[in-house]
């Protein structure tokens, strides 16, 4: 008499485990990329706020050219900024660009923001 087979063979179980392992790895990779992107976006947003604050501070100065660098605290983190001024064809207007870094000795900037400022002659 022949017996009918019940259940899965070893090959079928191994194939199912391999498929599950690949799907799990893809899920972990996607989650890791998402967390890295979130961290990058948070850092970039805070740097943008620091640059915006620095530009606001410069726009309130009578002689903004005298203030070329400083520190802004945003999100319990210090952001070091540096301003560069460029003359425009209009005498009383300067273009100022602020670059923001997480530390004073960092060479790469996290964010750049520019604005035109009216200066008193």
UniProtKB/TrEMBL annotation:
<keyword id="KW-0488">Methylation</keyword>
<feature type="domain" description="Type II secretion system protein GspI C-terminal">
    <location>
        <begin position="41"/>
        <end position="117"/>
    </location>
</feature>
<dbReference type="Pfam" id="PF02501">
    <property type="entry name" value="T2SSI"/>
</dbReference>
<keyword id="KW-1003">Cell membrane</keyword>
<keyword id="KW-1133">Transmembrane helix</keyword>
<comment type="similarity">
    <text>Belongs to the GSP I family.</text>
</comment>
<keyword id="KW-0812">Transmembrane</keyword>
<dbReference type="Pfam" id="PF07963">
    <property type="entry name" value="N_methyl"/>
</dbReference>
<dbReference type="GO" id="GO:0005886">
    <property type="term" value="C:plasma membrane"/>
</dbReference>
<dbReference type="GO" id="GO:0015628">
    <property type="term" value="P:protein secretion by the type II secretion system"/>
</dbReference>
<keyword id="KW-0997">Cell inner membrane</keyword>
<keyword id="KW-0472">Membrane</keyword>
<comment type="subunit">
    <text>Type II secretion is composed of four main components: the outer membrane complex, the inner membrane complex, the cytoplasmic secretion ATPase and the periplasm-spanning pseudopilus.</text>
</comment>
<dbReference type="InterPro" id="IPR012902">
    <property type="entry name" value="N_methyl_site"/>
</dbReference>
<dbReference type="InterPro" id="IPR003413">
    <property type="entry name" value="T2SS_GspI_C"/>
</dbReference>
<dbReference type="InterPro" id="IPR010052">
    <property type="entry name" value="T2SS_protein-GspI"/>
</dbReference>
<dbReference type="InterPro" id="IPR045584">
    <property type="entry name" value="Pilin-like"/>
</dbReference>
<dbReference type="GO" id="GO:0015627">
    <property type="term" value="C:type II protein secretion system complex"/>
</dbReference>
<protein>
    <recommendedName>
        <fullName>Type II secretion system protein I</fullName>
    </recommendedName>
</protein>
<comment type="function">
    <text>Component of the type II secretion system required for the energy-dependent secretion of extracellular factors such as proteases and toxins from the periplasm.</text>
</comment>
């Amino acid at each position: 008499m022949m017996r009918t087979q019940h259940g899965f063979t070893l090959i079928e179980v191994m194939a199912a485990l391999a498929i599950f392992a690949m799907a799990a790895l893809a899920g972990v990779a996607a989650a890791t990329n998402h967390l890295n992107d979130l961290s990058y976006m948070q850092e970039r947003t805070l740097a943008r706020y620091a640059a915006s604050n620095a530009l606001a501070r410069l726009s309130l100065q009578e002689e903004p050219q005298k203030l070329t660098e400083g520190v802004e605290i945003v999100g319990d983190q210090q952001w070091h900024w540096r301003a560069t001024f460029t003359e425009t064809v209009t005498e009383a207007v300067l273009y100022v660009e602020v670059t923001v870094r997480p530390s004073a000795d960092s060479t790469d900037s996290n964010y750049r923001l520019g604005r035109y400022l009216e200066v008193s002659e």
